[in-house]
Amino acid sequence: MNVVEHVQVEHKWTKRRDEKNRRMSLVKPWLRGSILQAELIVDAMEVLISSGDRVALEGNNQKQATFLSGALSKLDPHKVNNLHMLISSISRPEHLDIFEKGIARKLDFAYAGPQSLRIAQMMEDGLIEVGAIHTYLELYGRMFIDLIPNIALVAADKADHAGNLYTGPNTEETPTLVEATAFSNGIVIVQVNEIVGELPRVDIPASWVDVIVVAEKPYQLEALFTRDPRQISETQILMAMMAIRGVYERHQVMSLNHGIGFNTAAIELLLPTYGESLGLRGKICKHWALNPHPTLIPAIESGWVESIHCFGGEVGMEAYIAARPDIFFTGKDGSLRSNRAYCQMAGMYGVDLFIGSTLQMDEEGNSSTVTSGRLAGFGGAPNMGSDPRGRRHSSAAWLDMISEEGPIVRGKKLVVQMFETFQKGDQSTFVESLDAIAVGREAKLPTAPVMIYGDDVTHVITEEGIANLYKARNLEERKRSLAAIAGVTPLGRNHNLALNEQLRKDGLIAFPEDLGIRRTEAKRSLLAAKSMEELVEWSDGLYQPPGKFRSW
């Protein structure tokens, strides 16, 4: 009989803590408490950040740690290099400058909309090694598992003299990045707009923060979710009517997420008019996971909306939100408490429906915003635009997706893609093969960067009609249903129109007339607000749009 000898291995269990203390001791003479003078930020970063570190840099949809990202790009690459960057949204030029300068080498990210062309070229040129293109939740999740940051560079509105932080309406991803770093003995560096005697509320306690610097100017904040009703077309209104009648009403959708765009803005502005005429108030669209869209103001004021949880804020909506605490999640001071990670989780598990758009869709319903030469990434769409198989709570909409019989059956989250058959420049949205396949191959990605997989999509809406893909019994039915609403795109032109009558009978497709909608009814007069000025009027003057949206 063999006896296995137990071997005691000696460990040092405090290496990360000791290394943090060593680095912090080097900058201690420069700090007053935790506060650092702005002119010392580059010198301090060159001491606090070591080559090869994982650095989580706040750069999300709206809120950018602009002062810190600018300082990072000024580091001496002979002193600090080969950083592994964790950035949810590649939004600013310096996010990529650091790779060109050799300060950073590896990148894990979720979205790169504003820099999508440049990042694709830099990957092709071998200047960036991409770990993975993530969803937001996926990237945040890995920061607590195998991508634990050594450094976090984040932004907040205010700090007090003790070092507590107030993140304001745009809390976004700040707490997630800070927590992943602070509780693994990493170093948290925060830029703030000002230091005050007393904060409106404490969003992040001082004990989580190591260095605070007052930035030379406020962090960048974008009005990303503002849509001017003047730009909503009659085609988009028609599609919105189909969504309300053929999806929301039919499946009794009570909780939902809307993506960015004029299509969904049209739905929001039709609820108090078209939706009201159908008697749907109180029966659909009560609970939301989305940013505070100004185009939702009429629906809120008309009593349609009961609750909204937000990923982030929206410039100009602050006073309106403070005056509607029954609707929005706010602090005692009245300001919004947003949280990107929590809202992504709510959008994945807590809602019945996600509705978004895409740049390309293939004949099987796979879609992506990654197109030729443009590596945009995904953001949160794959989280919310997928069926979370761990869901166990029921709702009428979820149960309505059950397509088989038996003692053990499951519902499904509604995942809706709504888009016009042609993009700007007469580019067909329906394609034979997604550009994402070739882009992924050129970028040497292990899998094609598909945004939403076809087998998760339950409905597709175009200006032609609705494809009820959840009813398709096989791939062929799925393809025929999509082709039937593909219009005069190549996919649509190759479709046998003689099949449409049977597809309609089987409920696989529905045209406007099948839903009791006349195309001639789709007029801008249906919009509850037809301009930014009317949105302000609906809000009793509380909504204050940014200057670029003011035309009166």
UniProtKB/TrEMBL annotation:
Residues 370-390 are annotated as: Disordered. It comes from the Bacteria. It holds the Pfam family Mal_decarbox_Al. NCBIfam families: mdcA. PANTHER family: ACETATE COA-TRANSFERASE YDIF, MALONATE DECARBOXYLASE ALPHA SUBUNIT. This is Malonate decarboxylase subunit alpha. It comes from Paenibacillus hexagrammi.
